[in-house]
Design goal:
8-stranded mixed β-sheet; 10 strands; 12 helices
């Protein structure tokens, strides 16, 4: 793909957010081959995962091109429908926002909605839900699912290795995260190391658990320590905090939002069968719950884990052809 168009958006939704994070955010737009500003194209809004740089222009690995280059090549040879790729910045001082409106972190679902409106204003887009998809990996896949459940902006959702089934994807990580917190000297000491990287995997996992707690907190001013599902000193479990986390689990959210998901042109789930963080069991649970509620969707388990799976993005986006070219109405079943 050519160099992306980058602009900055002054977000009204993030103005005065509880964490004091920047309200002015970078938006990266990759234009499809042949874009001339006249023909209107569909748009894929890409939500990066926790801790990821909000860009598709950088190489994910030492070898091969960037994700944007891979998807651009797939568009050029017809494997993926030509579309604008828009990368949304949902980072916070704790690493990520889950792209939801959080009392403790800020209105990141509102920020996403603003970006959609701004992209439609600046570019030649199909400015309707049927011409928009929201996609992402890991926390970005979670954000895509929640956007599909709670917003009418998107006609397609693609979630790669998304956070779901929190008993599988979060709870097993907590003991090791507590060990890392304890070794650092407490939650605040851990947070003080944020800008002193590079960081190892245990640090990033611990930071992600802290970040999730803040995203799912229901009151401004909640401290990172109090947002954890158990006391970081004694390990005593906090049932009321964990119940609050579970209210944000896509598996638990599904009954209230199955109707909206059933109306999507495409709902696609993908996960590695050996995910490093147990996401495969959470996504399997979500797949089963979707089947139980009669929600049409496609489901794919691929070889591999949580990392180095960029090749599956093009495979998932290829499914948009059947929605955007009008040859197949409705979502495709597994």
């Amino acid at each position: 793909m050519n160099q992306p168009v980058v602009f900055e958006h002054d977000s009204a939704a993030l103005r005065g957010n509880p964490l004091g994070d920047p309200q002015r955010r970078r938006v990266e737009v990759h234009l499809p081959p042949g874009y001339d500003g006249v023909r209107r194209y569909p748009v894929v809004y890409w939500l990066p995962g926790y801790g990821a740089h909000p860009s598709l222009a950088n190489r994910a690995l030492a070898f091969g091109g960037s994700v944007a280059d891979r998807l651009g090549a797939a568009m050029a040879d017809g494997r993926v429908p030509p579309a604008l790729l828009v990368v949304v910045d949902g980072t916070t001082r704790y690493g990520g926002s889950q792209y939801i409106d959080s009392a403790a972190c800020g209105r990141y679902a509102g920020h996403l909605a603003e970006i959609v409106a701004e992209v439609d204003r600046r570019f030649a887009t199909r400015a309707e839900p049927a011409g928009r998809a929201v996609a992402g990996k890991s926390s970005g896949g979670y954000g895509a699912l929640v956007a599909g459940m709670t917003s009418d902006l998107f006609g397609a959702v693609l979630a790669f290795s998304p956070d779901a089934g929190f008993e599988h994807s979060y709870l097993p990580l907590v003991p090791a995260a507590l060990d890392t917190v304890r070794a650092a000297g407490g939650v605040e000491a851990l947070l003080a190391r944020r800008d002193s990287g590079p960081h190892d995997v245990p640090f990033m996992v611990a930071m992600s658990i802290v970040a999730m707690g803040m995203c799912y907190a229901d009151a401004p001013g909640t401290t990172p320590s109090d947002a954890l599902p158990c006391d970081p000193v004694s390990g005593l479990f906090r049932d009321e905090v964990w119940r609050r986390w579970l209210r944000h689990d896509p598996v638990r959210m599904l009954p209230a939002h199955a109707g909206r998901l059933s109306g999507l042109g495409l709902l696609h789930l993908s996960v590695g069968e050996r995910d490093d963080y147990g996401m495969h069991w959470g996504v399997r649970a979500l797949h089963a719950a979707l089947d139980g509620h009669g929600v049409p969707h496609s489901y794919l388990e691929h070889e591999g884990g949580h990392h180095g799976i960029e090749h599956v993005f093009a495979e998932g986006l290829a499914r948009l052809w059947r929605v955007w070219d009008g040859t197949e109405a409705g979502a495709c079943a597994a």
